[in-house]
Amino acid sequence: MISGTVDLLRHGALIGGLRYRGTTEAGLTEAGRATMDAVWNQLADTVDGIITSPLSRCREPATAWAEKAGIACAVLDDLHEMHYGAWEGLTATEIEEQFPGMLVRWRENPVGMRIPGAETIEEFAARVTRAWQRVLDDSEGKHLLLLAHSGTLRVILAHVLAASLPTTRRFAMPYSAWSRVIVRDEKILLEFLNRIV
Questions:
Q1: For 19-47, what is each residue's pLDDT tens digit?
Q2: Which helix H or strand E contains 133, and what residues bound it?
Q3: Hey, how many other C-beta atoms are within 10 angstroms of the C-beta on 32?
Q4: Which helix (H) or strand (E) holds 5?
Q5: Phi/psi at 42 (nearest 5 deg)?
Q6: Residue 185 confidence (pLDDT) above 50
Q7: Contact 135, 51 (CB under 8 A)
Q8: For residues 39 and 182, is the Cβ–Cβ distance under 8 A?
Q9: How many domains are contained in the chain?
Q10: What are phi and psi of 96, to 5 degrees?
Q11: 3-state SS, residue 17
Q12: Any idea what DSSP says for residue 165?
């Protein structure tokens, strides 16, 4: 059984405010990048490698940190945020105007739903857990940092806790939230959740 530590970090705040961006690219605000850097500064001397979503809000800080620290940075495509289809780029208010009642149902229990043109939560979870297993396989004896998105990290945390998919809607996931998963003695444990620096 593997043993190691994986720190999970959500990207910081994005230019343009709160929207369902999914796979749409968006730049970090100065404060958003600063809060990510604050977490990295606590980890820089202990991390052996970084794994990141391909979206620039995760990939750009990850590659910069890895280069400065002289460690490897792997980009895993399957860690990108859920593709929200017709909701991409919209605020919650805009979604409610265009798809009345759908967002409320989604937030309550997304299982069995398909947003027009989007991945289902089941499809999303399948690719994220596939990527997570790759991370675990690479974590033997290492301390890794994984940078990703709210939806991606919620799926990973639910998986770690052996919780159902509707549970993903019960996790708070602030910008730059930092969590830690450890693998010890054949157990995968959540050491802490959503620490804010």
A1: 999 999 999 999 999 999 999 999 999 99
A2: helix 121-137
A3: 20
A4: strand 4-10
A5: -80, -20
A6: yes
A7: yes
A8: no
A9: 1
A10: -60, -40
A11: coil
A12: G
